[in-house]
Amino acid sequence: FLSPLPWFIPQLMPDIFTPILFLYACLFLLRKNTKEAYLFGCITVLSAVMHNSNLIILSLFSTGLFIVYLLWKRKTTSKKFKDLSTTKPPQWMPFGTAIRQLMLLSLLPWALVIGSNVWVGNGFTVSKGSHVFFIGKLCENGILKKYLDEHCDANPSPLCAFKDNLPAHTWDFVWDDDGILEKTGGWHHSKVEYNKIIAGTLASPKYLFLHVRESAKATVHQLLLTHVGDGIERLDTAGTLAKELKTQFPHDYQGFNTNNTQQKMGYDFNVYNQVYDWSAVIIVCVALLIILANPKETGSVFFGVTFLFVLCNAFATATFANVLSRLNARVIGLLPMMGLLLILHHILERIKKRKVKQT
Predict the structure, then answer these.
(1) Nearest of 277, 269, 258 to residue 3 by alpha carbon
(2) Total domains, the chain
(3) Residue 47 falls within a domain, yes or no?
C-alpha cells in the first residue's frame, strides 16, 4: 500500500524486474554458499535482460559499489590505523570479492542481449532502435536543436527541415505515428543519419559538456518523479496499436474501445499518490534521523546501497531514454521499504537492550 509496486506488478511491462534486479543483486552479494550464488546470480541476469535500461543500471550499480568499496578500504586501512593492533576488520571486508563478482556478472546480460541480436541477424548491437531513442533524448534536452542550427548549412540532414518544430518530449518523437521519425526514415531507415548526428555531439567537447550538464539536470528531475498512473490516456483509434488490436483481437477490441474505464478517463491516482508521497517522506526522514544519530547502525549501509541503485536508475533512464514518472516510480519504493526495515530494526534493538539492562 505504501509503495508504487502494486501498480507495476500486474502490467505486461518489464518495469517490475528493475526492483527485482536490485533485490537479487543484493542477495547475490550476501549469499552464504555456492548454491545461493548461482541461484541469485541467475535471477539477477534474468532480470537484467528484461529491459535494456537494466543492463546499464546493473553495470553502474556494481561499478559504484566497487568504487565505494575501494574508497572505504583506503580510508580504514590508511596509515593512522596500521598501528592499531586491536582494530577489528571492517564490515565490508568479506564483500570485496562478491562485489568484484557482481561486476563480472553484470557483463553477462550484455553478452546475452548482443549475442541474441547477432543470432537473429540484427548485427552486433544491444538494440536496433537505440539510435531513435537517443535522438529523441537529444530532442528533449535541446541538444539536437543546437546541433542542427549549427551544422545544417554545412551538413544537411533530413532532420533539418524540422529543427524549428521539434517535440518537447522523447516519447512524442519516438511514438508519434505520423511524426518526425516517420518522415525521416522511420525505425529502419534513419539509423545512418541519426548515428552521424549522435557521433557528432559526442565527438565535440562543446556538445559533450552539454551532454553532461543535461544528464545531471535530467537525473535530478527524474529522482523527483514518484507518481504512478502516467500514460493512462484514451486509445487513439487511428493509431498503429489500435489497428493491430482490431486486426488481431476484433472481439476484445470492441469491448475495450466502448466499455473501458481508460477510454472514459475514469482513473484517478491523486489520492493514492499523495498517500504514498507523504508516507515515503515520513519514513525516509525518520530513517535518516536514526542514521544521523547512530552512524554505525547496521541498516544505514543497506539504505545507502538502496539510494545508490535508485540514483543509477534515474541516471540511466533520464540520460538515455525519458524523464518519465514511470521510470523512477518503479524503484523509488525501495527507499521507504529499506527505511521501514531500518526503523523496525532500530526499535527491536532498543527493546533488546532494555531487556538486557533489566536482567
Answers:
(1) 277
(2) 2
(3) yes
How many other C-beta atoms lie within 10 A of the C-beta of residue 248? Answer: 9
Handedness of CA 297, 298, 303, 308 (dihedral sign): positive
What would the pLDDT profile of 78-92 be if each residue is shown by its tens digit? 555 444 444 444 454
DSSP for 303-333, please give it: HHHHHHHHHHHHHHHHHHS---HHHHHHHHT
Q: Which residue in the block uniquely carries the three cell numbers 535500461?
A: 53
Cα distances (Å, whole numbers) of residue 168 to 44, 146, 212, 315: 35, 14, 19, 19
CB 346 within 8 A of CB 241: no
pTM of the entire predicted model: 0.85
The grid coordinates listed for 217 are 539536470
Same domain? For 142 and 104 the reply is: no
The reported pLDDT for the residue numbered 78 is 57
Q: How many degrees, rounded to 5, is the angle at CA 158 between CA 165 and CA 186?
A: 90
Residues 347 and 281 grouped into a single domain: yes
* DSSP state at residue 88: P
Instruction: Answer with the residue of higher pLDDT: 72 or 207.
Output: 207
Cα Rg, the chain, nearest whole Å? 24
